[in-house]
Specification:
Elements lengths: L3 H19 L3 H19 L6 H9 L8 E7 L1 E2 L2 E7 L5 E2 L2 E3 L6 H13 L1 E13 L12 E13 L7 E8 L13 H12 L6 E2 L1
Helix pairs in contact: 1-2, 2-3
């Protein structure tokens, strides 16, 4: 659960970002820039984030503030699931990543899976749409929605990438050390249940 301070800091950052997108008055611009700095100071005061990185990160955010979109693929073979090992932390996760403008969610997932695992896949069903803050992930600077798609392998070959050092199928009841910032073991268990029961509606928060 997010602390109230982090919730306030995120809200202030969102107000500042949106305000800077629309404010014509230079004095208002100055005020919104100050609010952005206050948000960075609030987030960094708990030693979770470095203030210099936050200030740089927030300054790059433009336009009306909205949640970011993280898209992930679930690729099951019998009772196993495809995971990729990240080169950044050595932990395992579902292939996927941030959605980019100009791509549909199914296009994002096909590109990400191919880049990270070497496989060519097609998304056939949305299994879940989660609000990251409502699940026990490590804290992030921004509000994030997570989309999980059930996918089928249509081609390609297992391959690593600059982002992944290994690609493997694991039994769903015997998972390796997961990158908890990206996916939780209880989420994988729920996604497997949804995969096994196609008539079930997608999960959402």
């Amino acid at each position: 659960m997010l602390s109230r301070r982090l919730q306030w800091a995120r809200e202030i950052q969102s107000i500042a970002q949106t305000g800077l997108s629309y404010a014509p008055d230079p004095y208002d611009v100055e005020r919104y820039v100050r609010l952005r700095s206050i948000a960075a100071e609030m987030m960094s005061s708990g030693d979770l984030f470095e203030i210099e990185r936050l200030e740089t990160l927030f300054a790059t955010q433009v336009g009306h503030a909205t949640p970011k979109i993280d898209v992930r693929a679930t690729i099951f073979q019998n009772d196993t699931i495809l995971l990729v090992q990240g080169t950044d932390d050595g932990a395992w996760s579902l292939p996927g990543g941030w959605a980019d403008p100009g791509e549909s969610p199914s296009e994002v997932i096909a590109r990400e899976v191919h880049e990270e695992s070497g496989y060519i896949v097609a998304a056939n069903r949305l299994l879940a749409l989660y609000d990251r803050d409502r699940h026990p992930h490590p804290t992030m600077e921004f509000h994030v929605y997570k989309l999980f798609f059930d996918c089928d392998i249509r081609g390609g070959n297992r391959a690593t990438s600059p982002e992944t050092s290994d690609v493997r199928f694991f039994p769903v009841d015997d998972l390796p050390s997961l990158s908890l910032t990206r996916v939780l073991p209880q989420q994988i268990a729920r996604l497997f249940e949804l995969h096994l029961h196609p008539a079930m509606a997608a999960d959402f928060d």
